[in-house]
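Appendix B, Record 12. Input sequence as logged:
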Amino acid sequence: MKMVELQELHTAIVTGKLPLAISTTQKAIEEGIEPQVIINEYMVKAMEEIGTRFENGKAFVPELLMAARAMKGSLDLLKPYLATETNRSPGKIVIGTVKGDLHDIGKNLVASMFEGCGFEVINLGVDISSEKFVKAVEEHHANIICMSALLTTTMNYMREVIKALEISGLRQKVKVMIGGAPITEQYALEIGADGYSDNANAAVVLAKKINRVIMIYSFELPASSLSLRKEEIYEAMGYGTHEPDESVKILTRELLAGIPEDVIVSGYLSTLAAEIQQDSISIQKMNFQTGKTIASLMKRAEQIAVFVATAGRGFERWSKSISQKDDWAALFITDSIGSCLVEKAGDYLETQLEQKIEKGLKHTNRFSPGYCGWNVTEQRKLFSLLPDSILGIQLSDSCMMSPIKSISGFIGIGKEVQTKRYGCQICELQTCFRKNKRKN
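Logged structural output:
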């Protein structure tokens, strides 16, 4: 399909022509155009255009609703084709009209605009209690909560929702937006909300401004799909340029071939705006004392990708079964396989990051708490930037991860950053997993 023809989708959404939007989207799917290209280059931009027209008084509520309907028709067609491993939503929003208020037309219009501009939206409906708002934020790991009220008698309940978020410990993890006929910017300041908007398009602009999550990406893959090579296992075991004995080679091949099907590796990252200081990095009003080594290598970064990856519980079960055989050589090799699997998962995250960041941007190496002068205790702070129990990973009192074959950390993103070889003497920590690679 020619881009000129695909431009018809943009026009169909702007003009609210549902049949044309659906037929153009179906044709694009049949011709193999990537769903994310259709969404980001045409659908989202169309919704932004109709929103701007509304803002300038050149479109009105009916036009907005018809555009949202056309966009939704196209999106419904695309959803089955979107890769389950990716989510490039700019954020996840929980929206609802507060308890005691049954008005929903304005709230639904805002929700449609959010969805049309790429946000994932959980619309709770009307008459929503603080408990329901809190539960939805916890369940869906929302970045933003939007509350609507049309009555002066119900608007004060917004304050109760914010208090409930504070009591639950969620307030620092979620931005709060409010709107509705009686709501003002002054009222938003009084109750501690992060922002106020008086129309749907302004709500989208505000959400993008206050939500500092730029991109989210996650994946789950069977260990077999990572194409782990025996040479990588030898390297992880410390052989460097040396050749293992034949018996070690045979055992390694047997263990690699015997990795169970339930060993699933997974990864997650979200990119956030950040400020880099001389020896620290600030993200969402939190200061990470990474030390000068990491901060200097990220000094030109404009964003930080917060990442986590794990070989998962399936690997732990397999490793435990090996340990019960009292074969310490097999257990050592299995442990090395686990280290390689989670590093491969990290490599896969980096590869996907390269493909998904804006053109012209580059990224740094991965840096993790516990290495390069960054204290491991800051891992708890890092995890506060991630959804609760992400990938099933838990932190111990000493901030160690479980499953143990897991990694987390930061990747810098910017126009003037670079990935350096780990042989560049980034640091001299002898226990670093990368040390063995330096010897080659």
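The CA atoms of residues 139 and 398 lie 27 Å apart.
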